[in-house]
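User: Before I run my own analysis I want an independent prediction to cross-check against. Here's the chain; please return only the structure tokens and, at the end, one sentence I can use as a sanity check.
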Amino acid sequence: MSDAPDAQVPPQVLQLAISEEVPDRMEAGLRLASFAGQSTVDALPHRLLLDDENTAVTYETAEALLARKDLAGARAVARAIAEADPRDLTTAWIGDAVHNEWRMRQEDLDLGHRLCEALLNSDEAPVRQGAAALAAYLDHGAWPGGPIPSVSQPRRPGLLARLRAHARPRPHR
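Assistant: Structure tokens:
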């Protein structure tokens, strides 16, 4: 966490984070990433990383947090990895964000390893657990404990394509 005073999150961003609309929550994930590391805000990106309804929100939030290339963003993603349900595709979409942000260039991969190494000393068990899994993913391109299916998506498809690709099937009634 930073020693600097917490910046004020605009109220409209807070509203986007709790919206029922997927594009709103995606936008909130992108915008809230800049506030990562602020104890008053960290619960919102965490909620978006583990979005119950649509993994597009998960992907956009994870990618924005990882793009920060700092401990605050890495900590948020590590915690989410540790707390994600391994039975759904949340971890796979986080993995795609990790791949796109930290595995494409050697300098990003090296930075990712340094951040994970620092997080392994965290006082918080979920952060340590997620950092260990994240480091393993950086090394091998797979999560420890077994393969999670890749969702292999293009880097930046249009909004509707992203929404369709991430939509979770709803049970038929």
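Sanity check: The chain has nine helices and no strands.
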